[in-house]
């Protein structure tokens, strides 16, 4: 008796959005590869990056946890963030320190993450998009420029174009494993996550952008639930697509998934979630003009006085696309 080969789904992104769909996809009959941005320079990741000159570990940590089959009690320890007043440990996640230690021991972030993935019994693969920390650069519409993910986010300005370099100002080189995963993908998923600081930092690496464009995989963009202050104010789902095309390449996407369930404003704590602004609206006619198939529905999950994607519903839609039912 023969068994059908599992299809390959590559998910590209970073931040807190990526794990939302990694966990449900992990439990489906597919091979999942997470390609994770390495441009983060804020919080615990930024401190470790600056002190040790290694790839920021936070987004990688979250991806590993999402795909891990270890008991939840262990994962809670790995995710534990120190609440100490100690100058060094304060706000550091234990997993970030473990990733940093393993990177220092092996001298290679990619090898360290693969080894840690085996220890954590992950179902799938987690690949940093590059082996060295990268620096994101933004040209703003007001003529100013910004460098560094944190600086760009805090500027709250409209971004005209992004680029990315190594800290030495050179063009980044993705690992061969990243390019292999893209080339052999049956589906490539972008997001959910911040358009300009989680998704595009991967795609504006020229070699990665070209590989994605040339891939025969079905390409799906998951539009954010809410816009981000200064970055994507008043963006529709089509506006996100146009930004990707403007920064990377036209005709890069096949589908866009957009939530149409109404986010109740009286539920959202805009002080707690102070980077969000208004709900992203769907523009199906513009989506179609861009050559992208719009898929709309209730993909909303309300929790902690915030608006998030329902990962289970998103995974179901992705499998429908993969099975040619959409």
Automatic annotation (TrEMBL):
InterPro entries referenced in this protein's UniProt entry, alphabetically: CofD, CofD-like_dom_sf, Gluconeogen_factor
Subcellular location: Cytoplasm
Family matches, as CDD domains: YvcK_like
Keywords: Cytoplasm
Gene3D superfamilies hit by this protein: CofD-like domains
Top-rank lineage group of the source organism: Bacteria
PANTHER family documented for this protein: GLUCONEOGENESIS FACTOR-RELATED (PTHR30135:SF3), UNCHARACTERIZED PROTEIN YVCK-RELATED (PTHR30135)
Family (UniProt): Belongs to the gluconeogenesis factor family.
Job description of the protein: Required for morphogenesis under gluconeogenic growth conditions.
Name recorded for this polypeptide: Putative gluconeogenesis factor
């Amino acid at each position: 008796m023969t068994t059908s080969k599992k299809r390959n789904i590559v998910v590209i992104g970073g931040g807190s959005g990526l794990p939302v769909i990694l966990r449900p996809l992990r439990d489906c009959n597919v091979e999942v590869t997470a390609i994770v941005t390495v441009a983060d320079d804020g919080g615990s990741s930024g401190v470790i990056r600056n002190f040790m000159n290694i790839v920021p570990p936070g987004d990688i940590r979250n991806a590993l946890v999402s795909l891990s089959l270890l008991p939840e009690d262990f994962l809670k320890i790995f995710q534990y963030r120190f609440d100490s007043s100690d100058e060094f440990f304060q706000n550091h996640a234990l997993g970030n320190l473990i990733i940093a230690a393993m990177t220092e021991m092996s001298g290679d972030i990619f090898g360290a993450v693969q080894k840690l993935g085996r220890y954590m019994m992950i179902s799938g693969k987690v690949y940093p998009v590059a082996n060295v920390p990268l620096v994101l650069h933004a040209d703003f519409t007001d003529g100013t420029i910004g460098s560094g993910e944190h600086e760009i986010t805090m500027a709250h300005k409209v971004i005209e174009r992004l680029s990315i370099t190594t800290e030495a100002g050179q063009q980044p080189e993705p690992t061969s494993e990243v390019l292999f995963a893209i080339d052999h993908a049956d589906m490539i998923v972008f997001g959910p996550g911040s358009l300009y600081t989680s998704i595009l930092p991967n795609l504006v690496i020229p070699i990665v952008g070209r590989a994605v464009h040339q891939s025969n995989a079905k390409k799906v963009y998951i539009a954010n639930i809410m816009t981000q202050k200064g970055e994507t104010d008043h963006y529709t789902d089509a506006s996100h697509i146009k930004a990707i095309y403007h920064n990377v390449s036209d005709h890069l996407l096949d589908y866009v998934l957009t939530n149409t369930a109404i986010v109740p404003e009286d539920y959202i704590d805009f002080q707690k979630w102070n980077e969000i602004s208004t709900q992203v609206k769907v523009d199906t006619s513009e989506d179609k003009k861009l050559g992208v198939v719009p898929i709309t529905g209730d993909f909303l999950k309300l929790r902690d006085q915030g608006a998030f994607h329902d990962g289970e519903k998103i995974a179901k839609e992705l499998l429908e696309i993969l099975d040619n039912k959409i």
